């Protein structure tokens, strides 16, 4: 009887050991699968994070490169118009007085034809007063021949354009209700705005991304 009980006990213990080992192996396998999945997910997320960061960095580099190109183009265009500005400045120097006189005459006539008033005040640089006085009769005759109107031109001798400007003329009525800026700086700015798209195209070619012209 004792031997039977001992034998049964051993068998029960062996069954318990087998079941325990099976449960342990199941838990171990489940744990390993869970950890493997967690590690895989971690590295997948890490890879996606680095891929996203690479795309961001590439986008930033592309944007910065585009900005650098635009800045360089802007500098080139500025240098081009600065050269033109220097030539305009040279136009008003003493040795070019004859040429400047012709330009000033045309600027005054152009302004008068736009204003179309019988009495107009002309404002120039103080150093251009002498030249301008010599032009008044010529301008009046030309204006009368073009329009049939007799115009009274008044040369301002107490208000002048800045001496450091490039010259030209400002015209206005005595009441100052009409005023026209025909200085060389204003003309250059106007020309720049008009021809800028053509200058860009000539220097850098067509922009494939531009849908509308300026």
What does this protein structure show overall?
The structure is a single chain. The chain is an alpha+beta fold and 214 residues long. Helices cover 70% and strands 9% of the residues. The chain has four helices and four strands. The protein has helices at 2-91, 97-115, 129-147, 184-204, and strands at 119-123, 152-155, 168-172, 179-183. Strand 3 (168-172) and strand 4 (179-183) form a beta hairpin. Helix 1 crosses helix 4 and helix 2 crosses helix 3 (129-147).
Task: Spell out the blueprint of helices and strands.
Layout: H1 2-91, H2 97-115, E1 119-123, H3 129-147, E2 152-155, E3 168-172, E4 179-183, H4 184-204
Parallel strand pairs: 1-2
Antiparallel strand pairs: 1-3, 3-4
Helix pairs in contact: 1-4, 2-3
Structure described in brief:
The chain is an alpha+beta fold and 214 residues long. It contains four helices and four strands; from the N terminus they run H-H-E-H-E-E-E-H. It is rod-shaped and about 150 Å long.
